[in-house]
Structures are given as structure tokens and as C-alpha cells.
From TrEMBL:
One of its GO terms (cellular component) is nucleus. This is Protein arginine N-methyltransferase 8-like. One of its GO terms (molecular function) is protein-arginine omega-N monomethyltransferase activity. The keyword S-adenosyl-L-methionine applies. Residues 149-305 form the Protein arginine N-methyltransferase domain. Signal peptide: none annotated. Keywords: Methyltransferase, S-adenosyl-L-methionine, Transferase. GO terms for biological process: methylation.
Length: 327
């Protein structure tokens, strides 16, 4: 990046490691046109809110959302990113001649002192959620906006493609070794993947609504009941979570298996018991989330009975680790 210092121009080099981190963590985000263009549409549809506003982007990554906010006439944009990827954001800001509007800061939000802001924008549906809540309570002006401002969390059950084995050979026997213990541990880790809509075998269940204007940090751990009614006959292999999120003036954007794929895909929780569903059968139970600093614990307690099988209340425990930059 070119930087002016006492009338001279010098080049700020970005290391190969930083570019590698950028490609590893952010290339797939930029390729997610469903999400990125939805943010762009939301900023443009609400241009009157961004005009002459002070905007804070939490977890800016490449800084694209900040650039779009500046294009809509924001007076000041503060782009915060905890990782070294912020160097890439600074370059993009410079190349787009927006350095007079956008300030890129490498730091955790909780460590900063910032002025009051009119708008907070973030892809907060993940590890940035607590940081956004902190920023809202600390700096968002009364009547200010958060983009997106709402989200809903859903659950369904799904089967497994017939060609996919439930226990690959290398877990039962690999050069004379028995690795089934490792396989069982793997089943306690949610899988982040795109499910085929044809695999969904139950109606969806709304688990939780999130309103960013009122949501508090202690509400990020919760327990809710669920009832999943079967739409067709099949063997259930996964509990599946997905969500939608909403901006003012736009229709919801969903990460459902029936919608175009996004960077978030879906979260798949392996069912470790035999669960043959017939039409109108119901799987019921409770879904619990316990949020820690660098991981999420999930408890799914469920029961089921029909003419084929009876399962008393059955507990499954899962853990999802956060990345090293999670806040």
C-alpha cells in the first residue's frame, strides 16, 4: 500500500502469510454472492440511513461492506478487524480512494475507545455476535441501526444419501488398527456442509428468534423444545440447523437447504441411534446451546416411538470449536 510520509511515498508490504490467511478465511466469503449482494442491496435500499452517518463495521475482513457504506455517502466508517487481514482491507480502501472516509483498525472491538455511531454492520451470524452486542451497548446512538437486525434459527431432520456409508472402512480397520473410538469422537462434532434439499424428511421447527436491538449476551445460551414431524418415510441420520437473517426493506435471506448455498452452509448433527421415520411420525425433545469463549456446546435430548422402534429420552452431546480469532 502506498503511504505518504513527510512528502515522500513509501510502500507498506503485506507478507505472504497474511495473503494466505486472507485467501483461507475470506476468499469463500467474497465468493458467496447470495450473502454479499444481499448486504450491498440492503445498504443501497437504506441509503438515506447511511448518508452522512458514522458507521462501524465489526469484523471487517476485506472491508468490502465498509466500502459500500462509504459509496452511499457515509461521513465516517470505522472498520475493525482483529487479524492481520486488516492490511488487505487497508490496501483495498486505498485503491478505491476511500481512505478519507474509512479508517481500518486492527484490534478486538472490546479493546477500543470509539465515538458514538449511527449504524453497526457486520456478518455477525457466528463468532462476532458478542462483539456486536458489546459495540451496540457501548457506542450505538439511540435509534441507531444494526445490519442485519434480526435472525431466526431453524431445525429439521434429514436422511443420508444411499451412496454414503455411515461408517467408512478406514475407521473400522486401517492397516490392522481399530479407529472406531476416533469415529465416535467425530460424531460429536457438528459437520458444516451443504445438504441436498431432497434429504430433508421433516417439517422445519423455529427454535429461536434473535433481535439485535434487545438481545443480551446471557441470552446466547438457551434451551428450547422441538417437535419434528416427518414428511416422508426414511431413516433419519442428521439433525440440521440453518437460519435466516433480515435487513430493513428487504426479504429475509436464508441458509436453508432448499435455497442457494451460502458461506454458512448448514450445521449437521449426527444421530447416533436407529431412527426410522414414517409419515407424520414426530421426533421431540429439547435443544440446548451453551456458549463459551472459544466453543459452543450443544445438547440434544430427544425421544421417539412408532411401530418399528421405541427410543426413550436420549441425550447427545456435541462441541463446535471456534477459530483462533473468535471473540
Amino acid at each position: 500500500m502506498l503511504r505518504s510520509t513527510k512528502g515522500t511515498i513509501e510502500v507498506e508490504e503485506i507478507s505472504a502469510a497474511t495473503y494466505a490467511e486472507f485467501l483461507l478465511k475470506h476468499e469463500h466469503i467474497l465468493k458467496d454472492e447470495v450473502t454479499m449482494l444481499s448486504y450491498k442491496a440492503a445498504i443501497e435500499a437504506n441509503a438515506e440511513l447511511f448518508h452522512q452517518a458514522t458507521v462501524l463495521e465489526v469484523g471487517c475482513g476485506s472491508g468490502v461492506l465498509s466500502l459500500w457504506a462509504a459509496q452511499q455517502g457515509a461521513a465516517k466508517v470505522i472498520a475493525v478487524e482483529s487479524s492481520a487481514v486488516c492490511q488487505v482491507a487497508r490496501q483495498l480502501v486505498r485503491h478505491n480512494r476511500m481512505e478519507h472516509v474509512i479508517e481500518v483498525i486492527q484490534e478486538n472491538v472490546q479493546q477500543l475507545q470509539l465515538p458514538p455511531v449511527d449504524i453497526i454492520i457486520s456478518k455477525w451470524m457466528g463468532s462476532a455476535l458478542e462483539a456486536v452486542i458489546y459495540a451496540r451497548d457501548k457506542w450505538l446512538k439511540p435509534g441507531g441501526c444494526i445490519f442485519p437486525h434480526q435472525a431466526n434459527l431453524y431445525m429439521v431432520a434429514a436422511d443420508q444419501p444411499r451412496e454414503q456409508q455411515s461408517l467408512p472402512d478406514y475407521w473400522t480397520r486401517y492397516s490392522g488398527l481399530d479407529l472406531r473410538l476416533a469415529w465416535r469422537i467425530m460424531q460429536q462434532t457438528p459437520v458444516i456442509d451443504c445438504l441436498d434439499a431432497a434429504q430433508v424428511i421433516t417439517q422445519w421447527q423455529l427454535l429461536r428468534r434473535f433481535d439485535l436491538s434487545t438481545l443480551s449476551s446471557h441470552e446466547l445460551s438457551f434451551t428450547v423444545p422441538f417437535k419434528l414431524r416427518a414428511l416422508r418415510q426414511s431413516l433419519a441420520k442428521w439433525f440440521v440447523l440453518y437460519f435466516d437473517f433480515r435487513f430493513p426493506k428487504l426479504k429475509p435471506i436464508t441458509t436453508s437447504p432448499s435455497a442457494p448455498p451460502t458461506q454458512w452452509k448448514q450445521a449437521l448433527f449426527h444421530i447416533d441411534a436407529h431412527l426410522p421415520l414414517c409419515i407424520r411420525d414426530v421426533v421431540k425433545g429439547t435443544f440446548q446451546v451453551k456458549r463459551a469463549v472459544r466453543h459452543l456446546d450443544f445438547d440434544i435430548d430427544w425421544s421417539f416411538s412408532n411401530e418399528l422402534v421405541q427410543v426413550q429420552m436420549h441425550k447427545q452431546i456435541y462441541r463446535m470449536q471456534a477459530g483462533p480469532d473468535a471473540v
